[in-house]
């Protein structure tokens, strides 16, 4: 790598984090694109939502906010169900909500057998549109996250 290119890469990596600011109203009101990929031969239905709000949008001094919010989406209740009721409703289907938090995106996923598609779609929609954010669950998730980045990481030999 040339010295100038190495200097530019180093300078870009050390640049301070600049808040993106709030989302513009026009962008928030825009229709959400829906992509449907069919697999007529498979017995499963896969639901996935990609939310454009990853860790890059965390405000300065609030690192981890996107991750905490995403975890609260899938593990702090949705709609008329609390967190335990969501897990109990999905348990007989053999599925659970999956979460991937990345720098630019948050992915919420749910795999479901076609026999349970109505229940799974209902829960998935509630998670995205009617999250409960129960205070006790959010505090529990925050405490878990703080533990993981402090003592949890220190306890691991890797």
Classify the helix fraction into a percent range.
Answer: 40-55%
Number of helical runs?
6
> What's the assembly state of these chains?
single chain
- Numbering strands along the chain, what is their spatial order in the largest sheet? 1-3-2
Which word captures the global form?
Answer: globular
* Biggest β-sheet strands, sense, barrel: 3 strands, antiparallel
What's the helix-strand series?
HHEHHEEHH
What portion of residues belong to β-strands? 5-15%
Q: Could you tell me the number of beta strands? A: 3
Give the terminus-to-terminus CA distance: 31 Å
Derived structural class: alpha+beta
Chain-averaged pLDDT? 79
Low-confidence stretches: 4-15
Compute the CA-based radius of gyration. 19 Å
Structure at a glance:
With 158 residues, the protein is of the alpha+beta class. The chain has helices at residues 3-13, 25-29, 65-75, 83-90, 117-129, 135-155; strands spanning 44-51, 98-101, 106-113.
């Amino acid at each position: 790598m040339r010295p100038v290119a190495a200097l530019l890469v180093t300078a870009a990596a050390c640049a301070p984090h600049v808040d993106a600011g709030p989302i513009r109203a026009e962008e928030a009101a825009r229709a959400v694109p829906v992509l449907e990929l069919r697999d007529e031969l498979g017995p499963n239905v896969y639901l996935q939502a990609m939310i454009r709000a990853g860790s890059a949008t965390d405000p300065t001094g609030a690192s981890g906010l996107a991750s905490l919010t995403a975890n609260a989406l899938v593990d702090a209740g949705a709609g008329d169900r609390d967190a335990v009721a969501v897990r109990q409703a999905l348990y007989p289907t053999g599925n659970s909500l999956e979460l991937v938090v990345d720098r630019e995106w948050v992915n919420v996923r749910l795999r479901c057998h076609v026999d349970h598609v109505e229940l799974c779609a209902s829960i998935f929609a509630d998670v995205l549109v009617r999250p409960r954010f129960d205070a006790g669950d959010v505090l529990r998730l925050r405490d878990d996250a703080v533990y993981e980045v402090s003592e949890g990481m220190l306890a691991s030999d890797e």
